[in-house]
Every structure is written in structure tokens, then in C-alpha cells.
Amino acid sequence: MATATTYGARDHARAQEGARTEAMPVVPAADWPSPPCAAGHLVWAETVAGGNYTHRVLARGTELRLTDLRGDACAHLLLFVDGRPWERLNVADTVKVQWNAYLGEGVLLLSDQGRVLASVIADTSGRHDALCGTSALARNTARYGDGTPQSASPAGRELFKLAAAKNGLTPRDLPPSLSFFQGVTVDEDGSLAFTGSAGPGASVTLRAEQDLTVLIANVPHPVDPRPDYVSTPLEVLAWRAAPTAPGDPLWDATPEGRRAFLNTAEFLTARGLA
């Protein structure tokens, strides 16, 4: 075998340079064939396979676009303030403070400090979920036969643990997550109705309002009724831009949102970051 020796293995590995697979990061991101931004501004370009995860630290003002390429991606998202991971996405406050359980354009993703972590600035899907979180090991093992990260049906929480560890975080740091591209609504009797996907090509764009550690797991939604583990590629693109500022319509869209932006601005100004 060509890889039976160290030299053979080295030569085989080096021969793969420049090879591309369907789902992988593009490094440097500037090599992405069709950037959605000005030349040189792209900072993250990746296609995440179904049943896989990714993570990145993004600067304040960065815009992050997620795209459901084939119609069966489900992007489970966690956000942490970079360097201050105890300030993190709080799904309950995101819903409660804005009087809205449904995600979409104009929604702010909040921490439990009353500050904005990210803003949803564009959405062509409308099929998202802030109620159910992601899948767990026990559930996937019972439903698909296995939920470990190396299996054919990894659970979202197990993948989040791996992404967290690569950013100095532990399982205790993982709160409930949001899900994009597979929707859930609440019926009059309080039961949940799975609305599924809006179809291939739907996208959602977020704007980082603080420096963020971003964790993403692309796995089936936990209440997806299909018996098979169905998860297709997710496109992730991020580029340099500017944070939301006073005068932006999003800043003043609601009294609650304006207060959250003011809380964020005051905190960043005191730290010399704004």
C-alpha cells in the first residue's frame, strides 16, 4: 500500500492538496467562487455536511449568511460573547423580551444581560424554531439507533460539545439553541406542529452586534416526524460589515429592541469597544 510507510503516507496526504469535496471549509475564504460582498471582505466560507458541525469567532459587525442548499438542512445555533462566554444566547429572553416566539427578519438574539448578540437582518425561509432546542444522545439513540458524534445519526448536543471544547467551553456552558430552516408552530391547544422546510435555497442573514463565538450543528430537528435521519448541506458565509447603529430602522423598530441596543452600546463604550 502507498500509505504503508511514513513517507508513503506523507506523499499521499500532500497529493490531496487543492482537492475539494462537497462539504468543507474554503481557506482562504477569498477563494469562494461567488462572494456576496465586496472583494476581500469574506472571512468565512464553508459548506457543512448533514450530521456535522462548525464554529468560528466573528468580529462585531460581521454579517453571517446561512443557506439551506437542498431543503433539508437545519442549522442549530449557539452564540457566546467572545472572551466572556458566561454572556451567551438566552432563547427564553429572546422570545420573552420581544413578545414573539417566532424568528424572522428584525428579530434580535439576546443574552440574559439584556444585550443584543446578533440581529436577523434578512430571511427568505420563515421556517425556524426557538422552542425545541436541538437533539440529544438518548433521543437519537432511541430513534435512529445511535446518537454519538461518530455515528451516521449524531445528536446536535453531542456535536455542540465538540464545537464547544474547541473554544474552551464545556457541556455546562451549552444553553438551549435556536434552529433555522426547520420550523415549528404552536397550536391553540399548546401542541407543537412541525412545519418543515421552505425548500432549497432559503437563507437567513445575521449581524454580529458583539464579538461572538458561533457554534453551529447541522442535524435534523428533534420533532422532525420522518423516520430516517435526513440532513443535507448547509452553506455558511460571513463577511466584514458594520454593526447596527442609531438611526438604523432596526435600532428603533420596537421599544424593547431599542433598550437592548442601548444596553449593548453602553457596555461596549465602557470597555472602549465602541
TrEMBL record:
Coiled coil: none annotated. Residues 1-21 are annotated as: Disordered. InterPro entries: DUF1989, UAAP1. Residues 9-20 have a biased composition (Basic and acidic residues). Pfam families: DUF1989. Residues 46-212 form the DUF1989 domain. This is Urea carboxylase. It comes from Streptomyces mangrovisoli.
